[in-house]
Fold this protein.
Amino acid sequence: MLDCGLDMTSTLNFLPLPLVQSPRLSKLPGWVLKDGSMFLDKELKECSGHVFVDSVPEFCLPETELLDLSTVDVILISNYHCMMALPYITEYTGFTGTVYATEPTVQIGRLLMEELVNSIERVPKAQSASMWKNKEVQRLLPAPLKDAVEVSMWRKCYTMPEVNAALSKIQLVGYSQKIELFGAVQVTPLSSGYALGSSNWIIQSHYEKVSYVSGSSLLTTHPQPMDQASLKNSDVLILTGLTQIPTANPDGMVGEFCSNLAMTVRNGGNVLVPCYPSGVIYDLLECLYQYIDSAGLSNVPFYFISPVANSSLEFSQIFAEWLCHNKQTKVYLPEPPFPHAELIQTNKLKHYPSIHGDFSNDFKQPCVVFTGHPSLRFGDVVHFMELWGKSSLNTVIFTEPDFSYLDALAPYQPLAMKCVYCPIDTRLNFIQVSKLLKEVQPLHVVCPEQYTQPPPTQSHRTDLMIDCQPPAMSYRRAEVLTLPYKRRYEKIEIMPDLADSLVPLEIKPGISLATVSAVLHTKDNKHLPPKPPQPPASKKRKRVSDDVPEGKSLKPLLSGSIPMDQFVQTLEKHGFSDVKVEDTAKGHIVLLQEAETLIQLEEDSTHIICDNDEPLRVKLRDLVLKFLQKF
Amino acid sequence: MFSWFFLLFCDVFLVFCDVSLLFCCCPGAGQDVGRSCILVSIAGKNVMLDCGMHMGYNDDRRFPDFSYITQNGRLTDFLDCVIISHFHLDHCGALPYFSEMVGYDGPIYMSHPTKAICPILLEDYRKITVDKKGETNFFTSQMIKDCMKKVVAVHLHQTVQVDEELEIKAYYAGHVLGAAMFQIKVGCESVVYTGDYNMTPDRHLGAAWIDKCRPDLLITESTYATTIRDSKRCRERDFLKKVHETVERGGKVLIPVFALGRAQELCILLETFWERMNLKAPIYFSTGLTEKANHYYKLFITWTNQKIRKTFVQRNMFEFKHIKAFDRAFADNPGPMVVFATPGMLHAGQSLQIFRKWAGNEKNMVIMPGYCVQGTVGHKILSGQRKLEMEGRQILEVKMQVEYMSFSAHADAKGIMQLIRQAEPRNVLLVHGEAKKMEFLRQKIEQEFHVSCFMPANGETTTILTNPSIPVDISLGLLKRETAIGAAPDAKKPKLMHGTLLMKDNSFRLVSPEQALKELGLAEHQLRFTCRVHIQDPRKEHETVLRVYNHLKGILKDYSVQHLPDGSITVESILIQATAHSEDQGTKVLLVSWTYQDEELGSYLTSLLKKGLPQSTP
């Protein structure tokens, strides 16, 4: 199984979870059906012209119905965003296999999960709505609730013990490490350049190579650059995790981010940046580190609020081996690879586990706050939205591309606060994809259906799709795809003792061959070195002609042709004095008159017709075989 | 053809060793420190393992003799790569000399922490040698920098493809920060070089680990070849007790250390002890390197042990509360104190200065936590010398207590055996140890594991014959067919396989005979036999046939015997037809016809039919 992501856009259908009792959110009117029935008013609330579920937020899981997950042996994780559904899989489906991921992926993945669990558990919600999920009821609801898919499969967030149990099933791997799976295939993670420890995977046997490219980036940010060379010679390349915002240029967005931030702060407003606790935030902090002095922002406090803020900042500094070259060299000095260490030291950046406690004492405005969750449905960000939403001086800047910012903002409308959308998605865009495909030249490309056609909202943009030869094969949710590839060879090893017994024969210049008869053992999917067949036990041998031959003993195929004259000479040499030769249309007939034996010689066949005289027949057989090559 | 085959099967390892085997005069301190430098030649690839220098010498003997490698010709042409196991100078000290002064431009592989720390130690060493001792003909700072540019850093477990055939892989060795063991592999032949390693986790590092990689040769260090060290806890308690006693009676404790490695472990030990006992005596760490060193530990925390890695966010073990930077003036301060000072063997620098100041007072103590090379002050005092001749013919009388405490993280005999058990090598080669002790270990290894064990002297070449198997591509068609033919569907049962090995250029492919013929553009030659078998049977032909059919059916239970409508019988693909004898109606002639591929069955059938049919068939 490749990756294990969690669809969190489902949470957009839920009401935000405020940290501090919010009078606005607690007094929302219940939603009433057109016919006036009120039975859903406890579960659904109307807010800013939209209907939201008033319940603990739920997530949409990967498909688990279609296949029996206990038959999955291995899960390969490509980056920390793609493992958020792991606890659901490892703890509830009977999955007993192994999960492979790099160390930064696991550590940062743990932080993301921890933050998620923490921000949801911190605000206990009494009710868990389920009535609206009834198919009959859902049909009556307004969009987007009406169109939400697989709502019955939506699940509440997991707990910390489940996270720990899931993570304990992960086996840590390093880039370019070759991992043998059951002797059948070898998997290797490669740097994908998207995030700390993010990887593409190569799944290969001796002759087949499948590359799984997911969430890769060719841009220079903090992680190690993408390893493209190792993807070459793939038979199949599975391509997914492309940029969600193909039209936005990340560099431009960062510039816009900085200027909007500076403008707001200069005007005395506050800036809110809803973000994940790891990833792009490191790059943003690095940009700001270079920017704040020149922009005259050195006295503006930057706050990073997350239950895992400290861990995230600390962890980022110890994964030097997974960072880009520049950052690696810094560690050799030795200096921390990320400049946010200096921001913290100089008190420009402060981090807090939550808005409660120390933060409320230190809090100074105007300021810049980085906090989660980007969906604006839970986490400390909800508080800041409520707090700052009413003033047009303030700005919220969206940088994470996972959620539509309009949907995210829906329950907060009407807003006086400025909203700026600067999605920073460093993953591959379509131009980079075609460059990459040209570079690595896979035989076949497999990708989700969405990538093979222009986005539905911009159907004229034919440049926003994958263009390659042969055309990419696409797949849809719950579809089975057969790959047009046939295995032909496997590798075995021939041990010296067997090799010694071989008699190679040069058939054509430069081509030799030898017939091999050997006993083949298969163990753990590996074909062990074949051994020369053991001669049958001597006891049996004596009566071998009396026994019914066991099974089918394999005789080699023959090839070649028999030269008439030499054959006759040989016969005569072996005591056949009355050889007579007749020509036929296709060859010759050799007659051994006394023995009443007939040998038909043709280009590609020899037929010995004789009386039941076994010694004679065997003798003739061996004479014929002398002229032929065995295969 | 045959000589070519011979070459293929008898590949040879050559291992040249350049490991000085040395001294042990101090009781209980039987270690040596040589210059580790091993040349391995495996399947035509030449790899140099470590490039150490000897700290006991100040002349040419300091560096390995690289003319061993190649007398004429450039090193770069001869060596495919150089691998450095860890940053100790006896493993990397000669590297700038080797790459910049002798001349080598190929790749040098080491772990990330080694790459970070190694140049600092080299520079430190260069300063002592050149600036303080005034030696010339030594490498320069620029040479160290240029040398480090040739270094490629490797991750743990990453398989690095040096070229198309040669690959190397690093394993965790636990000796110092960033210490690694390396597997060198060409085709199916492989060597594992351990460097220095430690099989028991300590306060800041984890234990060495390797998978069951079954190398043809394991080159292991054998510093503690015969020792089975007492438990670590005991040694730690002992150390703390001695330090504590000295401090209690107002004495000063000097601990000469190398900036990285043991120093950090001892700091963690003292730090926790001070905290627990609420001690007030100051602990100092000699300046410069050491603070920086702790910083390296912070940044490379992923290379430390599980416990430190888990807790580093809450409390970084390498941020010490009680340990402060040392200033030269502090040495004259009254009252107790503990000082960690470099270098570790008291041969120069700050540790020697402090030693000279404190040596005269019997209340003070010097604790040597590691090995000392002959010729150094450390070695002299450990071997019991109490009157030392210093520069300028001054005699220094040593009244302070001298303690030796082994904290160096090498594997002991138990650990070495454990590693051999883990890796399951076919041959073992012992290096970096003392001859007598190595001999004892050699016997033990040969007894317990039944593998050959070698211990070459310096400059000696060991040749190990390997028995490499030949990788062959087998066509899946053949493999599947053979699997299907196997009578019982028992996967564990060995199957007889028949195929044709095609050898073209350098590729070997095992394919089915049919495919081989097809690929070579040859037609199959069919060899067919038809035997006349005479049977006495007065009955009608079709009745005879029926009798034959029943007879065969009865005997050949595992075969498909069929009676065809046209009156013939088939057994598998063998055809039997009956005709009446042209002269004798009472004799029937059975024509049994088969191809060479059915030879055995055909031959069997004729002899069976020759014996006639059973007399009474109802």
Observations:
- Chain A is about 25% helix and 20% strand.
- The CA atoms of residues 474 and 480 of chain A lie 10 Å apart.
- Chain A has four domains: 1-173, 185-242+427-478, 250-421, 558-630.
